[in-house]
Amino acid sequence: MKSRPTNILPAVPFLLLLLFLSPPSPATAAAADASVYQSFLRCLETNTAPEDKISDLVYSPTNRTFNSVLQAYIRNSRLNTSSTPKPSIIITPTKIPHVQAAVLCTKAAGYQLKTRSGGHDYEGLSYVSDSPFFILDMFNFRSIEIDAAAKSGWVQAGATLGELYYRIWQKSNVLGFPAGICPTVGVGGHLSGAGYGNLLRKYGLSTDNVVDVQIVDVNGKLLDRASMEEDLFWAIRGGGGASFGVIIAYKIVLVPVPETVTVFRVEKYLEQNATDMAYQWQLVAPKTTKDLFMRMLLQPVSSKTKKGETTVRASVLAEYLGNADSLVALLGKEFPELGLKKEDCLEMSWIQSVLWWGLDNETNPAVLLSRQPESVNFGKRKSDYVQTPIPKASLEWIWKKMIESGKTGFVFNPYGGAMDEVPATETPFPHRAGNLYKIQYSISWKEAGVEAEKKYLGQIRRIYSYMTPFVSKNPRSAYLNYRDLDIGIVQPASKNSFDEGKVYGGKYFNGNFERLVKVKTAVDPHNFFWNEQSIPVLPSVEMWKQPLEMWLRVGDLKLWQTKAHGGGAPIFQLKMLNSVGLGFY
């Protein structure tokens, strides 16, 4: 609840004011944190039903289970160290009114709000920030309702892809959904950032198959497609939902899959003409039938024939919506360099193929309900798009650089098919016709420490630099769900955030970036829903953000700049942060 401002002081020069402020003692800081928690909790209790016992769903660092709640959905050890910034509060809502209250009360508190569904953001933007922040952890929002007859379903943002696939399979063995292969990925971030999987070339992106969305906006209102502007519906299907509000649920279209699909894995090393196979893959994988998705993995590995030497292994993993005989016949004509044989192929149901891709030797679909990943390592990812085939001589040069640089691997994901049929402006995701395949650069390690991180980040960044001549240009495009802070960040307090935002925004969204900015400016003009790579607001709105919303804590005092009561010049308010309480205005 808002309380009336007190201790209104005339505007004073900021540097002069600092002379009167002293650094906080640990006791004062602890008291301030406790005061923030109590005031925030009172706000939540005021805006939720008493029987909900909202206090049981809110965690501060003094709570004995705080660390376990925080770490439960951290999927990158690089972002789970003692020096990683921690939230001041974690909210774990179970009902939509809890989400609405969390938005309003966080806004009143002046903190940043990070929304987490599955925690798979490669840079941890759903649970890490250098600014004071709260986490809205959506893991309790995991309801899934499947209507097989209507070939549709509602899935909440905190559900995982594995849970979604399992619930579809329970209702039908001839329906599926085009999304990723990792079963512990959260639906919320995956779909709002576009999402893709092995059905990409047949049915497009995950977000191409979303027909309705529930979202809580900056004013705490629950909207669906019928009540939101169509521009907002467009934006949150590929533009990243966290820039616009809190995604509650998606209505999805289920797609037909045959009773039998075929998968295979074929590996070749450089000594086995892997270069010929890799080159030809570029010509075949994006152009073959839409029923076939062939992913290629390229990894520096120890040579099996030359002891002590490193080589490159090329692995083609595929899913075909049909039987093995027709697949072998097809690739015998189109891709003889692969050398596919019938014995390389496995025929299975679609749900079994989900297990084959994501969980190797598992055969019981119930394992998809597990939220625990097989392992959590330190890692970094980057992305690129290739629009013309890389010549064989250049591939051989790339292999050399991969071997020299360390352990960075590539994943080539073919486009074409349905991706060529959807206009680049249909959703915020623009990387459609004209792109042969997407590259994911991947490096993982197990050693903790700053030196190990520096070493491996240096490796993947060098490889990324080496690939510059072979990938898209002006801009060098990137995929939002392969989050990469190397390509640019926005500072929340910067008056130039639009200029900063268009650096990475142009790479993720190409020509759709400007439309996303206009939508953002319309629905969240004061940029409450921001993160280090969120959609910024237009500059004309951005310049008012600081006078309206920004505050600064220095020492035992809180300096808050707000707008004067009659629309005049900004004024400053100072309020002691003490154990009595902290008012939110």
List the defining traits of the structure above.
585 residues, disordered N terminus, disordered C terminus, 16 helices, 7-stranded antiparallel beta sheet, alpha+beta
Folded structure, characterized:
Helix 2 packs across helix 4 (96-109) and helix 12 (392-405) packs antiparallel against helix 13 (450-466). This protein has helices at residues 14-18, 26-46, 66-71, 96-109, 161-171, 187-192, 200-203, 230-235, 274-284, 324-334, 350-359, 392-405, 450-466, 497-509, 513-523, 539-549; strands spanning 8-9, 58-59, 89-91, 112-116, 133-137, 144-147, 152-156, 175-176, 210-216, 222-223, 246-253, 255-256, 261-269, 292-302, 310-320, 345-348, 378-386, 409-414, 437-445, 551-554, 557-562, 571-576. Mean pLDDT is 88; it is low at 1-24 and 546-585. The strands form five sheets. Strands 16-13-15-14-18-19-17 form a seven-stranded antiparallel β-sheet. Strands 6-7-11-9-10 form a five-stranded antiparallel β-sheet. Helices cover 29% and strands 21% of the residues. The protein starts with 7 loop residues before the first strand and ends in a 9-residue tail after the last strand. The radius of gyration is 25 Å and the shape is globular. The protein is α+β, with helices and mostly antiparallel strands and 585 residues long.
SSE blueprint:
Blueprint: E1 8-9, H1 14-18, H2 26-46, E2 58-59, H3 66-71, E3 89-91, H4 96-109, E4 112-116, E5 133-137, E6 144-147, E7 152-156, H5 161-171, E8 175-176, H6 187-192, H7 200-203, E9 210-216, E10 222-223, H8 230-235, E11 246-253, E12 255-256, E13 261-269, H9 274-284, E14 292-302, E15 310-320, H10 324-334, E16 345-348, H11 350-359, E17 378-386, H12 392-405, E18 409-414, E19 437-445, H13 450-466, H14 497-509, H15 513-523, H16 539-549, E20 551-554, E21 557-562, E22 571-576
Parallel strand pairs: 3-5, 4-5
Antiparallel strand pairs: 1-22, 2-3, 6-7, 7-11, 8-12, 9-10, 9-11, 13-15, 13-16, 14-15, 14-18, 17-19, 18-19, 20-21, 21-22
